[in-house]
Write the structure tokens for this entry.
Amino acid sequence: MREKVRLERVLFLDIETVPQEYAYEKLDGKTRELFEAKTRFQAARDNKPYDEVYADRAGILAEFGKVVCISVGFVNDSPTGKQIRMKSFYHDDEETLLKNFKDLLENSDKFQILCGHNAKEFDFPYICRRMLIHGIRLPDVLDIAGKKPWEISHLDTMELWKFGDFKAYTSLALLCHVFNIPTPKDDISGADVARVYYEENDLERIKVYCEKDVVALIQLFLKMR
């Protein structure tokens, strides 16, 4: 299947998310109550107070987090070989960011396939949930309700690596390591994104970090082809 995919039709993407409130103590009473109800099993299992669970998990839960950056990349042929082109959507106002990303998906008939790493479990549903919360109609390529599996134009490099094995998560960093793909992520890690966003107010830095993941994702997909 990987060999049959028309590379020029694929839009590779990665997202960065943060909690809607940086500190657990800033949550209103109802939101705090609902967060504790949703995460009580993790808190009990890990023997952690809810403020630590919030710091660890709020950004990856669409009900309590928000998207601050979506970076996309695509591959063009050039006289010197394949060339990666990038574009990033990043904004403090999540609704603006999501609408701009939707415009890209709907106003270009070039990209018919979306690809990410662990994107079927995280990136794609997260974007969809946050769009619905803002009252944004889903673009067709993300609206999978009622579609048959072969009608869904989504690729996931982690799923491709599983070969039907659903027991384990394999990170993008690990796959890049085993395939000898250089990943120049020499600045921040995913654990730093919320701090960089709220304490340093540095969306540009987060964008650069996100784009590096997209470059690594594209290189991994090409290796797997």
